[in-house]
Structures are given as C-alpha cells and as structure tokens.
Amino acid sequence: MSKFATAVALIGALFAGNAAAQSAKPTVVLVHGAFADSSSWNGVIQILEKDGYSVVAAANPLRSVSSDAAYVSNLVTSIEGPVVLVGHSYGGQVISNAARGHENVKSLVYVAAFAPEAGEAAADLAGKFPGGTLGEALAPPVKLPDGGVDLYIDKAKFHQQFAHDVPSEQAALMAAGQRPIAEAALTEKSGEPAWKTLPSWFIYGDGDKNIPAKALGFMAERAGSKHTVVVKGASHVVMTSKPQVVAELIEEAAR
C-alpha cells in the first residue's frame, strides 16, 4: 500500500471512529426517591434497554443530600461517555447536586421530582403549595442512633397516598419494600443546582399527593424545562404506572 493510500485509510478510520462516538447513545442513570427503590424503574428500564440504551438504576442511600449526591457523583465518574441523569422525587434534588462538575452529564430529567434552588430543602418545596397529604400518611418515625429519625409511609395508606394508579397487589409489595428516608435529608438545604447550566425535562402526574402538581409545575417553569409532560391523574410513581411516557421523555432528553 502506498503512503497516500495508507494516509487515506487512516483518515477514513478516524472519521468512522468519530462518527461512532457521536452516534453512541448516552448511559441513563436512574435515581429513585424516598419510599421507593430501584425496582420502581423496572418498566422504564425494559423500554430503554430494548431501545439500545445502557441503564444504571442507582441505589440511592436516602441519608442526606450531600452524601447521596456524592454517592451518585462517584457512580457518574465511573461511566465512560455521555450520561443522562434522571431523578424521581427526592432523587431530583440529588441529581441537581450530583451533576455538578461532570462534563459528561448532558441533560437532566425530573420525574415527579424536586428541583430546588440553592438554599432550598425538599420539605420547603413540598409545603410551598397546598394539596400534599404526605404528612398525614406517615407511619410513626423510627429513631436512629444519631438522634435523627427514619420516615416511612404507613403501609395501610401507601396505595392511596403514593401509588393510587398502580394495581393493589403491586402497591402492597411496594409498601412492604419501601426504602425509608432520613428526615434530615428532607430538611437539608440544596447546593447550587445543575439545572441552571444543563438542559432539563420534567414529567409528573396531576394526581400526585406527595408533591402538589402546582409545586412541580412551578419548579419546571423555574428551571426552564425544555419539555414538561403532565400525565392526567397519575400518582407520585408515574414511572411505575406509566413507564412508556416516562421512557419517551428520557429518550427525548438523551437525543
């Protein structure tokens, strides 16, 4: 092969490599919120993986905003290539903080999620607008060795409060397997949010009883949401009850 032919072949390989890199789909990192776990994303995961996306459903510790964000940040550091960060409920506050400093995070998706401003806490935003009934549905708090408490939703109230559009048998399993959140995490103030510098997408149900729909709409507008989807009648776990519409919005953000 002549030197000219070799050079042409090398240039062709370089362009092919760049095209492949540009066409590679981002990894989707899903972060659950309080009273849920990674299995709440199962329907969304099935759709995304079928459509060719690599997906990681993080096991959010639900201990504090700073430590949970550091946990997700470390996970993002381990991923090569572009990332779409998706947060549900309290997980929205986590991704807002975890994305900072990561050039590979390209977009954020908030699923019935908190998108706090710097200095705001989830508890502040939950009470900013009327309509939320979470406080009335909580079980007696569980004391922790550090003097704090863990919060659970009363199992008898879980279905109607958290997942009214999910079949009762499935909701009963979710209630039994719910992950508690430390009360301190809900009152911890947020840092400078990544939605100020990254494009964001929002989806939520107007039947949400944990975070009032007006609060979710307020946060979406404030964050300059590229596309906000409001699902008629959907509960707080819209990703579980309506996985197709949630997956479609995540894929929109991924493109």
UniProtKB/TrEMBL annotation:
The name this protein goes by in its record: Pimeloyl-ACP methyl ester carboxylesterase
Organism: Rhizobium mongolense
Cleaved signal peptide residues: 1-21
Entry coiled-coil feature ranges: none
Pfam families associated with the record: Abhydrolase_6
Keywords: Signal
Domain named AB hydrolase-1: residues: 28-248
Lineage: Bacteria, Pseudomonadati, Pseudomonadota, Alphaproteobacteria, Hyphomicrobiales
Gene3D superfamilies documented for this protein: alpha/beta hydrolase (3.40.50.1820)
Source taxon at top rank: Bacteria
UniProt xrefs under InterPro entries: AB_hydrolase_1, AB_hydrolase_fold, Sec-Metab_Biosynth_Hydrolase
